[in-house]
Every structure is written in structure tokens, then in C-alpha cells.
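Quick one:
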Amino acid sequence: KQKTAYEIRLSLVGSEMCIETGANLSNANLSGANLRLADLWGANLQGCTLTGANLKDATLSGANLKGVRWV
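Output:
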């Protein structure tokens, strides 16, 4: 079963985590999420909101970042 953006957001709060390769997070609101050390390789982040998210040392190689809102 694929998780909804809401379920994924709840699981990200305050954690160092790994999102499975190629995960679809399009249009998710990940504002303030702790994505430190996250492996987002190949993830679809199109249209996501990442305002205030901690992306220190996160891997974004091959991720679709089209239309991502950072601020």
C-alpha cells in the first residue's frame, strides 16, 4: 500500500529517515519536517512545500524538484 502524503508527513516529524527510492510525494506539505540525512533519491517532490524543512546532508540526486516551494 502506498502511503498518502499526510501519512508520510506524520512519519517524518523529528526523525532522520529514508524515503523509499522513487517515492511519490507530489504536492505534499513537508514544512518544518526534519529531513536531515534523508535519502530522497529519485523521489517525486513536484509541487511540495518545504518551507523551513531541515535538508542538511539529504540526498536529492535524481529527485523531481519542479515547482517546489522553499520559502
